[in-house]
Amino acid sequence: MITVSLRFYGDLNDLLTISTGQNQTTFERQLPGPTSVKDLIEGCGVPHTEVDVILVDSKAVDFSYLIADGNRISIYPVFNSLDIPEADRLQKPTAHYPRFLADVNLGKLARYLRLAGLDTAYRNDADDDDLIEQMQEENRVLLTRDRKLLMHKVVRHGYLPRSADPAEQLEEVLRRFDLFHELEPFSRCPRCNGSLQNVPKEEIIDRLEPLTKRHFDEFSQCIGCGQVYWAGSHRRRLDPKVKEIFDRI
Ligand SMILES: [Zn+2]
């Protein structure tokens, strides 16, 4: 029998599926034999994608570390603001503009990320195998609230939105991947994820409603689905919380 003591820091405590007595506290786990620290952590309900630093007896280890009797293990989430030695971090930085893949339950978040200008793949009929395949082929960051899916060992970059509210999920993703200062809102089609490009009014004038024709002169068009947009068309009916987030970008 192996006995270790564990402490999860920050919002990792929100993900725990085992009872630890008190929140944010050290607790003990007993295991029948050696196991990787990844399996130990995920056995507590926390997917590896959420963990940035693991210290065992004050020394940084990676997910493959085999735990030993008496280990004291501290587990930290991603803190973008903290100065942590790069070598100790388990969540390697994603691309400058990460590309996302949202699971079937995050359709609204996908739409908001696209509106924020971020390349976000989404299909409402994708099963787990489809998601894993697309994530690997296109090197995308997997967004899902399905812990089991995030715990899959091939998932390198992922995030589990804590909130059930899509506007709050948008805020979480922008914060987690440190994207607040780098975005170009309304540069991508919320319907299909295609890029938008400017289009002369005369080319699309036949498709405009009379009021739009009269009041607007600048238009853009999706290179994917052909949808036409104009100033303000994106913002119509936008959740006030999302508007407020875009105003801060
Ligand atoms: Zn489109």
UniProtKB/TrEMBL annotation:
Domain Mut7-C RNAse: 98-239
Lineage: superkingdom: Bacteria
InterPro entries, alphabetized: Mopterin_synth/thiamin_S_b, Mut7-C_RNAse_dom, Ub_Mut7C
Pfam family, one: Mut7-C
The Ubiquitin Mut7-C domain, residue ranges: 1-83
Protein's recorded name: Mut7-C ubiquitin/RNAse domain-containing protein
Species of origin: Fodinibius salicampi
